[in-house]
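worker-3 :: picked Formate dehydrogenase subunit delta
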Amino acid sequence: MSPDRLVYMANQIGAFFRSQGPDKAVPGIAEHLKKFWEPRMRRAIIAHLDAGGDGLAPEVRAAVEALKGAT
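worker-3 :: tokens ->
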């Protein structure tokens, strides 16, 4: 899956959680990615973040950082 598609999908998840505020949104996004994304998708979004994370919404960026620390 292309990085652009993963960014789009992650940002859509972020949009869902955004209304809960950053204190709940960031862990909610990270948990969703952990539960529902395949390991290779998680590795790819982490690699995208490591390469600069272009296009990731701020709360999604923070969630992927948290996910990175949990793997």
